[in-house]
Amino acid sequence: MARFPEDFLWGGATSAAQIEGGRCEDGKGLSHLDYVYYRGPKRPCNFMLLDDYKKARIEEATLNFPNRRGIDFYHRYKEDIALLAEMGFKSFRMSVSWTRLFPTGKEEKPNPEGVEFYHNVFRELHKYGIEPLVTMIHYEMPYGFVDEGNGWETDMIIPYAVKYMKFLIDEYKGEVKYWLTFNEINMVNAVPFLGGGIILDRPGPTSKIDFDSYTPTPEITFERKGPPPTANFARWDQASHQALHHQFIASAMVVKYAHETAPNCLIGNMFNLHHLYPETSSPKDAYRAHEETEFNMLFCDVMAKGYYPAWMLSWYKKHNINIKWYDNYEEILANGKVDFISLSYYLSTVVTADPARQEKIGSFIRFLRNKYLETSDFGWQIDPIALRISLNELRDRFNLPIYIVENGIGAFEELGEDKTVHDDYRISYLRSHIEAIADAIEDGVDVIGYTPWGCIDLVSCSLVSMSKRYGFVYVDADDEGNGTYDRYRKDSFYWYKKVIASNGEDLD
Description:
This protein is an alpha/beta fold. It has helices at residues 16-19, 50-58, 73-87, 98-101, 112-127, 144-149, 157-172, 187-190, 192-196, 233-261, 283-305, 310-318, 329-334, 384-398, 424-442, 491-501, and strands spanning 9-13, 91-95, 131-137, 178-182, 266-268, 271-272, 275-278, 341-344, 348-351, 374-375, 381-382, 402-406, 411-412, 447-450, 468-469, 473-475, 487-489. A hairpin with a 5-residue loop joins strand 10 and strand 11 (381-382). The longest helix has 29 residues, at 233-261.
């Protein structure tokens, strides 16, 4: 008996910001991610304070912005899609760049060159029988919304975002069946600038940014030691949860619209899945793990069930978070429930109730270590069993199909003299997680697809660099944009091709 369904959607995942390049070509505008600059090896770059943002805007000519280059998918998409087809992909997760269609986000009509580009990409995918899985907003937004309203913190962005997402449905519904509204929607709470365009040390959500007052300041280096030294958690929670509410509203509006106008399309949510272990058998640690798990499930509760759970409303009250509720929000959420759950899964984490060592609820990268697990080059602990456990929990909670749209291991890699990369560690990581997925399917979980992250090397989100590589395909480009950008198959390319051809049966 096969462990995976015959129509299982094997593939890989990317995002426009990290692969496309083509900066400002054919009418494209700049997004807020185009102003996140490279700061050096192993230096996290996607947490931006006001001084960082001013520096990026004023010193633009001298800084290194890898997202603007990507891996040149804009010009090489046919070559890249042919490589995906060679592996036997059934599905390709990608995103649309908002600013390639609406350069400032406020245009009345879309940019025709951008519209045609995505038609061309979808045609190329369908030529090989590859189903597009399209994320509408993969973090990116036109940078003007950051300037004017601190990104998603104010509701002024909602009508523009909804217009853009409705346009995607109208224009591409004949070419795209599977859609996601927001990528890792919980990142607006974990990393507010990345997920929501929120600058936390800004005086207020609608305060005008004073670029004239800028003076160069020393770089702040976080080096995985915790939140930035200027973090104001009360401000962080208020801003990020208000932004989250606005994203929930926009998503629900678009889901309802798609159900009414594109009945053949399926729309899912997408969140970063955490599996959390209590550090000890202390009841307090166990409750902290429960609380963190409930917080992680919030992002599915609202989008799949159509309402805020009572415990979250109590949590807001307890922590003095005063959400400005959108008009008729309860009805909007109830009428915009998603069709399936999608998720990214990379690691499990350990939590403690000890106030002196307790990390912020909802954090993505944690610093407590599980002694029973191996750790990757980048400090992420490898735990396929937690994926199986979590998939079972999602089945019991939502009873919806589940699409695993990100999973993988980042590593420093160099192209060898034999023009390949011998990435046995990637094969081992993916094999163990595919086995966990097969076990979950046997447990009765309805998993419909699996698209490992960064199937072609791309610009890392956390480091904004090419150094951290995830792909089956090596791209000859470095952190400074040097290289031929030619593509080379890694050992994992041939292994994954065999996995797909055998529908997950041959993992040797």
